[in-house]
């Protein structure tokens, strides 16, 4: 019951952050007040989520023993795999599906970062951590028993892609599945989170290069 309650609080925290963003937009708040509040709120919510993960203890997927070599190996595999998947899907989208490979989210981040660089803390660090905890540790991990690992992957990845509301839906769908795989094999939510953070940082760095 304790774990269920903590996971419910985790989801509610995430929803609350989205609600704050919506309310600030309704209030027509912009510039430093908007991005400052959102970044601060994201840091607080991320801290709460990490704390809840800590007091929850390990779930059925996670290993009770931390292995640094395994963690480093899977962080590198997760990051490299994520980059290669994006390159591969970008090729398919551009040459076979004749779709644009420009991500609306990345374009928005690049524009925002120029005026409000501290917002990168939210987008490049807090967002990946929150997403891994919500979509992999809460949804994916809890859906395995009532369904199976394949349905759990499909459902959590679909929710992950829908949440991003980006034109490159396929990219987010496949990336969601990849991070489920990384989490499942590494047995550590912080490994998939680290891979997610590094992937975002590399993509952002290449975009501004």
TrEMBL record:
<dbReference type="InterPro" id="IPR003675">
    <property type="entry name" value="Rce1/LyrA-like_dom"/>
</dbReference>
<protein>
    <submittedName>
        <fullName>CAAX protease</fullName>
    </submittedName>
</protein>
<feature type="transmembrane region" description="Helical">
    <location>
        <begin position="116"/>
        <end position="135"/>
    </location>
</feature>
<feature type="transmembrane region" description="Helical">
    <location>
        <begin position="7"/>
        <end position="27"/>
    </location>
</feature>
<feature type="transmembrane region" description="Helical">
    <location>
        <begin position="147"/>
        <end position="163"/>
    </location>
</feature>
<dbReference type="GO" id="GO:0004175">
    <property type="term" value="F:endopeptidase activity"/>
</dbReference>
<feature type="transmembrane region" description="Helical">
    <location>
        <begin position="74"/>
        <end position="96"/>
    </location>
</feature>
<dbReference type="GO" id="GO:0080120">
    <property type="term" value="P:CAAX-box protein maturation"/>
</dbReference>
<feature type="transmembrane region" description="Helical">
    <location>
        <begin position="33"/>
        <end position="53"/>
    </location>
</feature>
<keyword id="KW-0645">Protease</keyword>
<dbReference type="GO" id="GO:0006508">
    <property type="term" value="P:proteolysis"/>
</dbReference>
<keyword id="KW-1133">Transmembrane helix</keyword>
<keyword id="KW-0378">Hydrolase</keyword>
<dbReference type="InterPro" id="IPR052710">
    <property type="entry name" value="CAAX_protease"/>
</dbReference>
<comment type="similarity">
    <text>Belongs to the UPF0177 family.</text>
</comment>
<keyword id="KW-0812">Transmembrane</keyword>
<feature type="transmembrane region" description="Helical">
    <location>
        <begin position="169"/>
        <end position="184"/>
    </location>
</feature>
<keyword id="KW-0472">Membrane</keyword>
<feature type="transmembrane region" description="Helical">
    <location>
        <begin position="189"/>
        <end position="208"/>
    </location>
</feature>
<feature type="domain" description="CAAX prenyl protease 2/Lysostaphin resistance protein A-like">
    <location>
        <begin position="118"/>
        <end position="202"/>
    </location>
</feature>
<dbReference type="Pfam" id="PF02517">
    <property type="entry name" value="Rce1-like"/>
</dbReference>
């Amino acid at each position: 019951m304790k774990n269920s309650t903590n996971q419910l609080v985790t989801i509610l925290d995430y929803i609350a952050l989205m609600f704050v963003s919506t309310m600030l937009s309704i209030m027509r708040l912009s510039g430093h007040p908007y991005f400052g509040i959102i970044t601060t709120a994201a840091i607080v919510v991320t801290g709460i989520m990490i704390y809840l993960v800590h007091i929850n203890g390990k779930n059925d997927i996670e290993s009770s023993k931390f292995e640094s070599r395994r963690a480093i190996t899977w962080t590198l595999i997760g990051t490299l795999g994520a980059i290669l998947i994006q390159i591969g899907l970008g090729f398919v989208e551009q040459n076979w599906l004749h779709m644009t490979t420009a991500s609306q989210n990345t374009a928005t981040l690049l524009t925002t970062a120029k005026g409000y660089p501290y917002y990168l803390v939210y987008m490049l660090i807090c967002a990946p951590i929150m997403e891994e905890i919500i979509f992999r540790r809460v949804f994916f991990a809890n859906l395995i028993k009532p369904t199976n690992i394949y349905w759990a992957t499909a459902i959590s990845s679909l929710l992950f892609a829908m949440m991003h509301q980006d034109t490159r839906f396929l990219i987010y769908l496949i990336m969601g599945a990849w991070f489920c795989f990384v989490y499942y094999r590494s047995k550590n939510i912080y490994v998939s989170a680290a891979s997610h953070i590094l992937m975002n940082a590399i993509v952002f760095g290449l975009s501004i290069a």
